[in-house]
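Deliverable D4.2, example record:
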Amino acid sequence: MTIDRKLLLPFGFFLFIAYIIFLADTADHNFAFRLIGHIPYGDKIMHALLYGVMALLLNYGLGFKTIKFHIQLGSIIILTFATLEEMSQYYIPSRTFDLGDLLADVVGIFLFSFIYSSRFFLKKKLQ
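Output generated by the structure prediction step:
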């Protein structure tokens, strides 16, 4: 079984986000968490950026495959992951479910998916 080389980048980014989630779940509030906490809406901005970039990378890795209503498959996968991860915080004592974080995830996924869909920045599919 071979893995498509286009999926290596989104997989690597997923591991990066999984590490961030692990640090947050274990209440290891290192320098990066403290720094973002001092930026107004820094947590929400990072949610939008991280999940948006992850959606863009996975959509690229999947060849911008769409399903019904021209919705990108990678975006649906990341939206599902973000929703499950945010809801899991109900069960982790050091975490708190935040609907604002989930909304920021949705906004980031939508915006970064829109970048390709609208051809605003990309004139053709990435090779």
